[in-house]
Design a protein that fits this description.
Elements: E1 20-27, H1 34-47, E2 56-59, H2 70-81, E3 87-90, H3 94-104, H4 109-123, H5 135-148, H6 151-159, E4 163-166, E5 169-172, H7 187-192, H8 195-199, E6 207-210, E7 219-220, E8 224-226, H9 231-234, E9 236-244, E10 246-253
Parallel strand pairs: 1-2, 2-3, 5-6, 6-8
Antiparallel strand pairs: 1-9, 4-5, 7-8, 9-10
Helix pairs in contact: 3-4
Length: 254
């Protein structure tokens, strides 16, 4: 419909392309697939060979659970945090939150184990109890896990951030609640939200780069970039490279 004064309505001004002030590689949910992570890191190292600066490496959470090598994944990430060639940020996912909850509340163990935590216990050399209702066995498993957990692994788990920003991009594990300022976001939403965030045409003033919701193909849209390609089940681990206004995917496949 035209304007009532007879003049044509002005076309909406398109949003400028999102911009990153530095090169950033954001890696989706690894879920214990050290084989895929090592392959992806090799590709990222090759890709950054033309870059003279110190790129950012952002892990979007859910390093652990489901896959067979959670302890190895965490060790590799710790090694990267000590490498001066990289500016590494490790974000917390809902699976890391579950691990920390188990350490504080062993009765949470059965729920965590059913959602992939059993693989993480095994990766640290702890056998999950066979039943859900044996409280003493789960307390013993928690104690054994706490003893087996290297100090630097625990430090990484407890020090994970909920979000980070680079230029026009906001990096977070699950997403944000649409229309809520970042400083007012509920941490639970940052770790768990799906439907309301995924379906929103624009959830935040930044372009949100996230994992958590598995997709067959990574999603690069104007206001959202989703890079969880279900590595533990599909054998496909995805990262997105952001550099200035350029966006491109880097992937490793089993």
């Amino acid at each position: 419909m035209g304007r009532l004064d007879g003049r044509a309505a002005a076309a909406p001004v398109p949003a400028p392309p999102a911009w990153s002030p530095e090169r950033v590689y954001a890696i989706g949910d690894v879920h214990g697939r050290l084989d895929l992570l090592d392959a992806l890191l090799t590709k990222i190292a090759d890709d950054r060979s033309d870059h003279d600066g110190r790129p950012s490496l952002v892990f979007l959470g859910d390093l652990i659970d489901r896959g067979p090598a959670s302890a190895g994944v965490v060790q590799r990430v710790i090694e990267l945090t000590r490498d001066p060639a990289w500016d590494v940020t490790v974000l917390k996912g809902n699976h890391e939150e579950a691990l920390l909850l188990f350490l504080d509340q062993p009765e949470f163990g059965p729920t965590w184990a059913e959602h992939g935590g059993g693989a993480t216990l095994a990766a640290y050399g702890v056998r999950p109890p066979a039943g859900r209702t044996d409280a003493a066995a789960w307390t013993a498993a928690r104690d054994a896990f706490a003893k087996a957990l290297p100090a630097d692994h625990l430090e990484l788990y407890r020090g994970m951030e909920l979000w980070t920003r680079r230029g026009d991009y906001l990096f977070v594990h699950a997403g944000v609640r649409p229309g809520v300022p970042l400083e007012a976001q509920d941490p639970k939403d940052l770790l768990w939200i799906r439907g309301e965030f995924i379906s929103a045409p624009r959830a935040a003033e930044h372009v949100v780069v996230h994992g958590h919701t598995p997709v067959e193909q990574a999603q690069l849209t104007r206001w959202r970039i989703g890079v969880d390609t279900g590595a533990y089940a599909t054998g496909l681990l995805t990262a997105v490279r952001l550099d200035g206004t350029d966006q491109r995917l880097i992937q490793a496949r089993a």
